[in-house]
Structures are given as structure tokens and as C-alpha cells.
Amino acid sequence: MKFIRNCNLRSLRCRLLIVIVVSFLVPFLFFLCTLFIEYQDLKNDISNALDSTAERYKSSLENFISSEFYKLEIISSLESIKNSSQDSETILRNLKGSFPEAQSVAYVNMSGQIIYSSNNLKNISIADRSYFINAMKGERALSGLLLSRISNEKIITFAVPVFSEKNFITGVIISEIPVETLYKLTAPINSSLTSNGYNIRFALLDQNSNVIVSFPGNSYQFTRNDYKSFLSNPINFFSLIFFDRWLCSEVKLADTNWSIYCAISSLSFLSLVRLAFFGILFSLFVLLVLLFLSYFFVYNELSRPLKVLEGVFNDIRKGVREINSINPERLTLEFGQLFYNIKNIWTQLDKKDSELEAANKELRSAERRYRALVDNSLTGIFMLAPDFTFRYANVQFASIFGYSIEELLVKSPLDLFTQDGQEAIRSVVTDEGTIKDDRFHSIITGVHKNGNLIYLEILLTYLLDDDGIYLFGTAADVSDKVAYQRNLEFLSYRDSLTGVYNRRFFEEELAKLSISRLKRKVAIVVVDIDCLKWANDRIGHAEGDNLIIRTARLLESIFKELGEVCRIGGDEFAVICIDYRNDELNNAIDKLKKSSGLAEDDHVPLYISFGVAFGHVPGDDMQEIFRRADDAMYMDKGSHHEAVYNVLKIYAKERGIES
Asked: What is its main location (predicted)?
């Protein structure tokens, strides 16, 4: 309010302020309103279109998959199928009519051999197929993209387990569905969206990222991205004005590892983008016109007093009296104040000189105080000249390396660090002698006078001086801290019960091998304790812990020279073997087989199941090797499941334990 009351239209400051505020406020508000409205509308339209499109595809495909599984589960529940009777093949042929979309329906035994089928296809093994393995685990299973052995067409396979009266898995019912069925299923949706004016692309991917169905064509070519995160960035919003982009949405299908990717071209919403663009152009045009008006508005007021000032300062013979004789009323308030300030400056020069001398004296005194503070600091402080020699170092910095000040100043600064430390410092010093990003803060290694390795926390920056650029930094010895942190990191990779490596170490090792460029052969052994839950429930967790510890010691003794033993779950272990000798690994596997069932004192006999998978890096996916070893372990467990529990029943009966 005080500023408004003192505002004078004769003041140049007031006039300029009014013009600038009006020039910027009107177009700026219009621009913000237009941009915000169009931006929100675009986000909402794209979001609604992509979400509804993805939901239509998802609903249609999930209903189809659920229907196929339901039909197969009805077949698997038939008594003839459960008992694998001779009329099973006749039943499958009769029920084939319920699967008009299927090429064949077949019954597969536990060994993975096709026993009966609706098209008389027999004695074909599918034991190595992942969908068969998953079904044998008691799950609904759906394959990825396959090639039919019958018609050489692209197909997908549904599989459900067959349970006996005692709820044991006795086999698997499978049906083969041509991919063309899925194309027919999605065709009405594609036609509907295209007729509504959407430029759309759609792809259905299996768990191995193979394209099962795509529209248009037989492949999808749009880039995977999340349209919500893309549109949340205003810069991406502006790019839509000039470039066409595919905005993508991804959804997962229930009960499968399949993914749906659908994308809509931003050109479908180009009218909104153009409207926003023209709003920006209009705002800039208004702003430009108002700025020109403001310039011509103040030009006449500026030109007259500037000519008066030019005449005063060009005539060096004029003194203070001549300047005081000029009538300030001829000028604006600001220029009148300027003349008053010039008179004060001239009359106070002598006073300023004396004040400057006093300030210099105080500056020299302050320099002595700060130098004493730096010299006696508990933190090492140093300064390097442009030629990379010591310009200054305090006593603490010299003592970190075990030198005196005199010994330190004649040494090259880089000689105080290891090769890694020297490279770290050189990497942040630019060609001009400055520091990248203005400062460097890191822990690097140095060399003590006695030859020991020390860890230093370095903070390095630079200082501009009249004769060049100086590097200025501080240093602190953190060797004890680094040793403590490394000990903590070591403990974080160990299992507290067994002392072997934990799952975190296992996953990081797999990740390192996945990006390794060295050619190496890899084997993963997955081991599972068969009777851990039985021991925990019947005897107690102390007995269960004993089984876990005995398993860890057994694996360490067998694979001591071959690989790293890791506990990756409650009753599951894994061993990573790298660059092993085949004969040594085979001997270790034989020892592991013979060790299953060994008893120790009065403890529960140790029964284990294991699986082995092999691969090479680079080339093979480490997660895929681990999955194959895990599947092999489950196959091994299923092969002796009944025998193990019969032994445990005898063990429990002999000791009076409820089985």
C-alpha cells in the first residue's frame, strides 16, 4: 500500500512497471488457461480410449481362456479319464465336438507320453514342455507359441492335471488351439475400433515375449511405453505437436503370463494438439505487440534526459557547481535523484578512501585469523597450483600420510595416491583446470609413508584467482570406517542359521553372470529338503533347523572346490558352479545322490531332491537355467515322494511319534 501511495506517474519506474505488467499478465494467463485445458483434455481422451480398448481385448481373451480350461477340467473329472481306461480315446473323440476350435484333445501320462487323443495321435513325448511340467505340479498351464506336429500350423496348448481318487496326479489333459482362432476372436474388436476412427495397433505376447496375435499385419512395430508416464511429462506433450507417437498400454491376462499391448496413434487426437499450438502462437503474438507498444511509450521519456546527461559527462571542464546549476525539474524523478547521487559521490571520495584503508587493515587481520584456523584444523586441507604442485597444505593433511610439512611440499600430489586414486582425480579435472560439476566428493585410496594402503574421503573444488585456477580440497582418513562397512556387507550376504551365502548373494551372482562378457560354462544345482515340513510339524522346529544345517554342511563338503553354496529359501539350496571340470561335477552329483537318506544319531534321516541345469555365458539366460534346474528338482521329488514318506512313517512308529 505504501508503494501505491508514493507512486508518481512522472516516475519512469512506475510507467515501465505498468507497461511490463500489462504486457506479460494478459497473454501469460491466456496461455496458461489454454494449455492447461487442452493438456487435461488430451490426457483424459487418450486414457479413456486406451483403457477401454485394452479392457475389451482383455475381457474377450480371458473369457475364451477360462472357457477352454473349464471344458478340459470337466473332461479330466470323468471316471474313465481318471482311470485311464481303454474307452478313453473313444470318449475324447466324442467330446471333440465340444471343442470346435481345437485341433485335438489328448491324454498324457506322467512320463509325458501321449496315450489317447481325439485324432489318434500317440506315443509322442511332451515331457520337456514347460506347460506339461506346470500341469504336473497341479496347476492350470498354458503354453507359449508352438508349431503343430499335425498341421504345421502355429498353435497354443492348454493343459490341466488329472487327479486320481486319492488326489494324486496321474496325467494331463491337453488341447491344441490354432492361433487363427485368436485372430477370429479379436477381429470384431479391431473392426469396431477402426470404424470409430482410431489408428490402432494390437499385439498379444506369450510368456516368452513371442507375438501370438497382432493387428495390423503379422507383427507389432510400435515402441512399448507407458502412456500415463509419457503424458505426465509436459515436454512429451509438446512433442505431440510436431511428431506422431504411438501411446501404448500394457495389461496382463489373468491365470497366464501373457501380455496385451495396444497402442493408439497421437494423430487420432491431433485436433486438440493443434488447438493448443495455435493458442500458444496467439499468446506470443499478443505479447510481441504489447512489448513494442511499451518500447515506444517510454522512448520519448528516456531520450530527453539521456541527451542532458551526455552533454554533462562529455564536458570534462564542468565541476560540481555546474552540475548543481542544472534544474532537476526538467528531468524525471529518477534522473533528478541521479544528479543528487553524483554530487554526494564527489564530496565523499576522501571519506571513502579512509574507510577503504580501514577495511584493508581488517581484511589482513581476518586473513591471519583464518590462516591460523586452517593450519590447526583437525581436517586435512590442501591447495594445488595450476601446474599441479602444492601451493598449501596444513599439518593434519601431512600427518594423514605420515609426512612432515617440509617432506610433503616437495612431493608430487598424485604420488600420494594409488593408481585408482590418481585416475579418479584426473577424471574430474577438466582441460581448463576446473572440476566437473564444480565439486568432487568421493572415497579414494592413498599410500601412507610406511607403504600401507589408506582410504581417504576427498572433497575437491576449485578457486579462481588472478594468476590462474587453484584446486582446493579437504581430506579425512576413513580407513576404519571403510573396514567396518565392508564387514557389514560381508555379513549381509550370509545366512544366519547355516553360515552359507543367502538368496541376496545368489541373485546378485546370477545378475553378474548375465552381463558377463567372458565365455564361461555354468551349472546350477537346486537342492530341496524332502522332510523339513514333516520334521517341523511332528518333532519341532529344532529338528527342522538340524536338517537345514546338516544339508548346508553336506553341500559344503561336496561342492567345496566346485562352487558357492547358497540358501535361497526355507528348505531350498542352490549351488552355482563356474568353469568346472565335468568329471569333478559328475563325482559331486554322485556323492549327492548317495547322501540322500543318511541318518545322524537319533535325528530324522536326511532326504533331499535335486536338479541340475547347464548353460554358457554370454548367451544363455541365467534365470532360464535356474528355472530348468528347479523344474528338474521337482521332477526328482515327485519320483520318490511316496518312498520318502514311507520311511518317515517307519521312523515315527519306532519312536512313538504321531505320523
From this structure: membrane
